[in-house]
Task: inverse folding
């Protein structure tokens, strides 16, 4: 729940030469140990480029996951550069609408948002959402993620009511399909609270963020980075300070 869109997932390892290290890097990332994830993925990427070549699907997957971890670490331009490389290669090798390609396009859009390139982010998120709705259906988890991320970019562009409408839709779908305490559901509830705050619905925002904080403390733990950020944001709101967020 950092100041970014929906958390960008590492892609799961294929039956390649380094699945154990991929899994460990993902565990590091999930635990908030971003630099450990980066260090490990840089090693895996160097090995994959040596043994498999720079354009092998497993190498592209590792490069995608490293870019995602760069984004986690706030290394936005590094993330953009790497995601743009991966996207070009995946479009050429796998096709424009293949699931891995769509995930990279979505992550690139989120990094554009991090860099303040709001309209570029919206354009890519709208592409990804349209393709995921067409291929996967309107309630598939990946479709809901795309819709969530588009809503967040709408909010960045000042389209607050559009953001609220989409976030409320995603929240209802996630509560029904994933449950009220799933991390993805918490993410959308948090984002909806931020949109309420931006719209001047102060008490609605605080009430919703109090729910998010209680669930984050229980599900993620009191010291998880996302829990800490939610707590800080809520404290700012209670003191009538405006805090930007996801």
Result:
């Amino acid at each position: 729940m950092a100041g970014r869109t929906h958390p960008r997932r590492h892609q799961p390892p294929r039956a390649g030469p380094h699945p154990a290290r991929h899994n460990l890097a993902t565990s590091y990332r999930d635990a908030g140990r971003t630099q450990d994830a980066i260090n490990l993925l840089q090693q895996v990427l160097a090995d994959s480029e040596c043994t498999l070549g720079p354009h092998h699907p497993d190498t592209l997957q590792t490069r995608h996951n490293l870019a995602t971890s760069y984004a986690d670490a706030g290394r936005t331009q590094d993330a953009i550069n790497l995601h743009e490389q991966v996207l070009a290669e995946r479009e050429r090798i796998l096709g424009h609408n293949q699931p891995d390609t769509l995930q990279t396009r979505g992550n690139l859009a989120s990094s554009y948002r991090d860099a303040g390139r709001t309209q570029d982010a919206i354009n890519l998120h709208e592409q990804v959402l349209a393709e995921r709705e067409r291929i996967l259906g309107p309630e598939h988890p990946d479709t809901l993620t795309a819709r969530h991320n588009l809503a967040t970019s709408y909010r960045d562009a000042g389209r607050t009511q559009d953001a609220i409408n989409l976030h409320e839709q995603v929240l209802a779908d996630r509560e029904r399909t994933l449950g009220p305490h799933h991390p993805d559901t918490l993410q959308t509830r948090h984002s909806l609270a931020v949109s309420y705050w931006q719209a001047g619905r102060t008490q609605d925002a605080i009430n919703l963020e109090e729910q998010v904080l209680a669930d984050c403390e229980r599900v993620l733990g009191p010291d998880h980075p996302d829990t800490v950020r939610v707590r800080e944001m809520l404290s700012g709101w209670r003191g009538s300070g405006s805090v930007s967020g996801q």
